[in-house]
Amino acid sequence: MYEWDFGPVLAESGVLLAGFRNTLELTATALAGGLVVGLLLALARLSPRRRLRWPAGVVIEVFRTTPPLVQLFWFYFGLPIVVSVEMTPFLAAALTFTIQSGAFFAEILRAGIVSIERGQWEAASAIGMRPHQTMRRVILPQAVKRMFPSMMERSIELMKTTTLVATVSYADLLFQANELAQKTFRPLEVFTLVALVYFVAITCLSGLGSLLERRFARSGEFAA
Amino acid sequence: MSVLKLVGISKSFGGTRVFENVDLDVEKGDRIAILGASGSGKSTLLRCINLLETPDAGSIEIGGTKVGSAGRSGLRISERDLQALRLRAGMVFQQFNLFPHMTVAGNVAEGLSTVRRMSRPDARTRAIMELARVGLADKADAYPARLSGGQKQRVAIARALAMDPEILLFDEPTSALDPALVGEVLGVIEQLAEEGRTMLLVTHEIGFAYHVANRILFLAEGGIYESGTPDEVLKHPRRPLTQHFLKEHKRFQF
């Protein structure tokens, strides 16, 4: 029977905490950047101009159909060779996950935008609103609310996928856990603790999401 | 004074002709009811006026100025001219099309603040004034989902009125309503007619058309089939399709 001993692990919990902070930092950066990139990609893909439409389509499809680990390696090892730039683990990770989550957000947003009834466009243009005004004031607010659950799901997925950055030595929670496991010879305790941290963090995140969703519903705009 | 002039307007959808060569002259203060069987192009004609549909041919003049220019695939128009046209012709839709994420006052104020660049407080004051006109000032802070169909349509009318249009286009404004709610919307339209507003009204409410309109257009066979005063067209129709249409409508009256 295995004897659990969290003592040595908890004594060094500062190492894990630092990793957790890095995980949060990366997730928040990728999430914020991803929303901006996603919105731009979605608008470009829906644009009447072909010159905007197809490059956006290519970016979205490439990042949706290739494994995130490959993208990460490409940005970290490949990009400095192709163009001479200094690449830090954080920069490579932030770039990868910003564009990658942007690609997914773009598809979610696009689906949300096209799901808004034609009558909304017509009503807005009938009072003289231009297409960009209609998009900003009428279509997007409704599309984002409609797509909120899917975007929440994607954000949770993103937080978990960031564990891949340990492979390029970015000191996220998982990377730190590995270090600690080797140091304390207590991998079982370390990874149990790490799982618990993710569980709590993501549960809090989705709880926050549900709270927001309920607030949308309370504003009464959805027919009861 | 001519407010709106259509010359030779034609429209077809994928090879199916809706109407061809329609001419129409609307004078200030005209209240024109457009009747016809379903599929006769009533709504399409109305939607061609503010270019929610692009006519294949013909020209539109509003307030004496010509709109756009003839292009290869119908009327061509710049975005700026399109906006100017739509500000002069307010539209009320069958399905209301209120913005569900904005309050009632927000719906009415939206065009004022976004298009007319009015400050938000000013836009709201004006919105509440327009809402009072349709009897809904007390609903200013409610969301559309909480309103009845009749109330929604009155808000939609207030939203159109707020932009000071020279001409109002009503596209079957009561067709989506419970019979019990039709009266309140027709009441508002009647009141606007009495104020001397110019309006085009696509409707199935023949009795209402008779009382409110000064001209009736009956659409059939891809054009204006018969037109005249309500007495001429509705009481003494001369042509067979008009007579048949009116007879069908009277079938279940008592």
How would the blueprint of this fold be written?
The complex is a heterodimer of chains A (224) and B (254).
Chain A: H1 7-11, H2 13-46, H3 50-65, H4 68-82, H5 89-115, H6 118-126, H7 131-161, H8 173-184, H9 187-218
Helix pairs in contact in A: 2-3, 2-5, 2-8, 3-5, 4-5, 5-7, 6-7, 7-9, 8-9
Chain B: E1 2-13, E2 16-27, E3 31-36, H1 42-49, E4 57-62, E5 65-67, E6 69-71, E7 74-76, H2 79-88, E8 89-92, H3 104-114, H4 120-133, H5 149-162, E9 167-171, H6 179-194, E10 198-202, H7 206-212, E11 215-220, E12 223-228, H8 230-235, H9 240-250
Parallel strand pairs in B: 3-10, 3-11, 8-9, 9-10
Antiparallel strand pairs in B: 1-2, 1-4, 4-5, 6-7, 11-12
Helix pairs in contact in B: 3-4, 3-5, 4-5, 5-6
The largest β sheet of chain A comes out as: none
Q: What's the end-to-end separation of chain A, in Å?
A: 56 Å
**Count of DSSP-assigned helices of chain B:** 9
The CATH architecture designation of chain A is Orthogonal Bundle
Task: Walk across the major sheet of chain B and give the strand order.
Answer: 8-9-10-3-11-12
Q: How many runs of DSSP E, i.e. beta strands of chain A?
A: 0
Question: What is the N-to-C succession of helices and strands of chain A?
Answer: HHHHHHHHH
CATH topology grouping of chain A = MetI-like fold
Structural class by sheet pairing and helices of chain B: alpha/beta
CATH class of chain B: Alpha Beta
Q: Summarize the biggest pleated sheet of chain B.
A: 6 strands, mixed
Rg of chain B (CA only): 18 Å
Give the uncertain stretches of chain B in residue-range form: none
Overall average pLDDT of chain A: 92
Number of domains of chain A: 1
| Shape by Cα distribution of chain B | globular
For the record, give the distance between the C-alpha atoms at the N and C termini of chain B, rounded to a whole number. Answer: 41 Å
Approximately how much helix is present in the residues of chain A? over 70%
